[in-house]
C-alpha cells in the first residue's frame, strides 16, 4: 500500500520540522511495510512570495489528490500587513479547510511523566492526563450570520451561533468512534442550560448514544469544563464540543502540556485529513535548528491513526518519543537543568534510534 | 452615615455564613464610625416554602429600598424538581438581577500565600495573583434572540450574541474605574478577529480609553486568555469581558484559588449592589457549622469598597483574613496537615480579633 502525502512546509520553522516528520514516516514505512510518496506544495507566506497567492490552485489540487496532508506552519511578520484576504492564515488555512470539508479539529493532550515539571500545574494533578479534544470547526458563532446596525447613533453588532442536526451529528459520530479506539469515555461540552443551539447539540448526542452502547457518555457545561480541565484533567478521555467552546478549551488544555512544541493536531471531515503541529511558524527561531520537531512527528502519528487506521504504527512513534524524553533529551523549549540539549535533527535522530 | 443593608440568607449554609459577615460589618462600623441597619428578607427555597414564591414582592421591595444587598446562597435538592420558573436560581436570582439592573458581575481572584499549596497550580505560578474579572451579565449570547426551526426534517437551532454601544460602554467604564482604584491595568477580552460583536466591543474600549489616561489598556483574545490565566495569572489586574466569555473565564479563574469558600462576588449596575459568595448553598454540610465564612465576609468587604467607597475598611477586612490564614486557622474546605481546624463561627472570631 502506498500512501500519497501532500507536504506543505509553509513558513518559519515549518521548513525545518516537516522534514523530520518525513524521516520518521519513512522509518515507520521501512519497518512496517508501508510506502509513502511525498509531494511538496507551496502555502502561506512563501506561496505569496512565489505566486502572489497564499493558497495557489496547484496546492489545493495536490491536496485534493492526496491521501493526507502534512503541514508545517504558516505566516510571519513579513506578511502581517497584507490585506486580510491575502494574509497567510485567512487566505490559506480557512479556504483549505473549507475546500476539503474539514469540519473537525482534533487536539490530543497527553502529558509526559518526563516533562511533568514543565507545566504550570502540579505534577500530581497532571498524572495520567491523556485526552483528545474534538472541536467543530466550520459552524457556530464564527461562521453564523453577523452584522452591525446603526439606529439613531446606537450601534448594535451581532453574531449567530447556529447549528443544524447534520452538522452536529457528523462530528458527534466522529467523537463516538474516536472514543471507541480509546478508553471509551465521551464528554460532550455545551451550555444547554441557557443556549438553544446547545440543547439541540445535547439532544443529538443523546439520540446517537444508543448506537454506541460501549461508550460512556457524559455532558458538562462549558464553564464547569474550564474548571475541571485544571482541577482534574485525568478524568477526560474524548471531549467533543462546538467551535467557540472548543477554541477556548483546546487552547486552555495546551497549557497542561510542557510546551506548544509537543502538541499535534488534525483537521478531519472530508476524504483527506490535514495534520499539523498546534504551534505557529515561530519566526524568532526559524533557521536556527532550535525548533522542537515532536509536535510535527506526533501529527504524522495522528495521520497514521486517523487517516490510515495504522494504530500500532502511531503507538510505536508515541512510545519512541516517550522513551527519548525519559532518556533526558530536550530541545530548547523543554530544556531543564540536568538534561541533554539537542537540536531539531538530533531530536529526530534519537526518535529514529528508538524506532530502529 | 447609616447604610441600610438588605440581608437575604437564603438556603443551606446561607443561614450560617451571612450572620458572620454581619458580625464583621458591625465590628468595622464600631471601629470606623459607620452604622448599618440590617433587614432580613426571604429568597430562594425557603421563600418558596413560606410564601410560594422564590422572590417574594416584599423581598424585591426591601432590596429596592436598601443601599446594598448581602445574599447567602440559594437552592438545594428539595426544590430541584419544581418547574423551571419557580426554581430558586431561575425564579429568584435572574429576576432580582433584572429588576435591579445589575449588568456587571465582579469576581476578584486573589491568591493567599498561606493557601498557595491548595491550588492545582504551582505555588510559584500563583504568586502575586490578584485580579478582578468584570463580566457583562445581562447581554450577549445568553439573552439574545434564540430559536429553532425544522426544515424538511432538519432541525436548526440558534442563539444570538448581540451587544449595543451603550451596553458595552457602561460596563467598560465600570472596568476603567475599578482599574483606577487598583493597579491601573485593564485587559479587555474578546474575539475580535472573528466576531462582529467583539469588534464593536474593542472599538468601544479604544474610544473610551483616552478618557482614562492613567489606565494601561490591552486587548486579548479569549482563547489566549484561557491559556494566560494558567500560564501567568499574575499579569492581570482588571479583566473585562462579555457574558459568555466571562462565565467561562471566571469559573476557570476560581481554580486559581484554594477553595470556592474563598471567593467573593458582586453584581453591580443599578443604584443598589448585590454581594454574595461565589459558592452555592452546599446542602451537604448545612447546619453543621462547617462552612467557610470567608467568601461571604469578603463579599461584605466588596460592599464597603464598591457600594460605599469605603476602601480602607475593605482593605482592613482583607488584611485581617490574610493574618488569620497566616496564623494557620482553617475551615474544613481549606484544612491541611499541621493547621488548626476551626468552625464557621470560630473563623469569624479570629477575623474579629485581628480587626480589634
Ligand atoms: Mg484558538
Ligand atoms: Mg458559570
Automatic annotation (TrEMBL), chains A, B:
Record Gene3D superfamilies: Isopropylmalate Dehydrogenase
Residue ranges of every copy of the Isopropylmalate dehydrogenase-like domain listed in the record: 4-351
Localization, UniProt: Cytoplasm
Gene Ontology biological process terms, A to Z: L-leucine biosynthetic process
Catalyzed reaction equations: (2R,3S)-3-isopropylmalate + NAD(+) = 4-methyl-2-oxopentanoate + CO2 + NADH
Record family assignment: Belongs to the isocitrate and isopropylmalate dehydrogenases family. LeuB type 1 subfamily.
Record function comment: Catalyzes the oxidation of 3-carboxy-2-hydroxy-4-methylpentanoate (3-isopropylmalate) to 3-carboxy-4-methyl-2-oxopentanoate. The product decarboxylates to 4-methyl-2 oxopentanoate.
Full protein name: 3-isopropylmalate dehydrogenase
Organism placement in taxonomy: Bacteria, Bacillati, Bacillota, Clostridia, Eubacteriales
